[in-house]
Amino acid sequence: MAAHPIWRMLGSRRLLVLLRSPLPSAGRAAHRGTDTGSLTKQAEATVATDWKKKLTPEQFYVTREKGTEPPFSGIYLNNTESGIYCCVCCNAPLFSSEKKYNSGTGWPSFSEAYGACGRDESNTNIMRRPDNSLGSTRTEVVCKQCDAHLGHVFDDGPTPSGQRFCINSVSLNFKPGSGQ
Questions:
Q1: How far apart are the first and last CA of the chain?
Q2: Of 5, 8, 92, 160, which is the most buried if we count CB atoms within 10 A?
């Protein structure tokens, strides 16, 4: 059995659905020996092209290629307005201004994610992942909804959480409001 790619448009997002069913006999002959990995590569390239159309080059570099903006350069580093910080890619709420603080590190810092209850992050839009990319173990923070790289979290933050979410400004959109 071969996998058929079927594209469905969902707003501005594309969803690749692979169905397991036999191809017609002519299709089977034409697809014998083909690299099924190329479907994945093609889908990834299409998704990357869509993100490149939606994001600025800096936003794409940080959120899709796991880059980092230079320290002390971010638009939200010194923002003190009340509101919610959302994912620049999908608009999911990520952090509240009520949990933002000045860590002195050069990036916006938060003591917990929006929707967290202590260390319980099950109602948040973030996920943690191990990151060994620079020869040391860190914890990457990504958007649970669209897998955008946001930054990292460290265990040297203020009490009571003891966490420091060190987040790239370029991965965020700020929505002024109550911050709750």
A1: 51
A2: 92
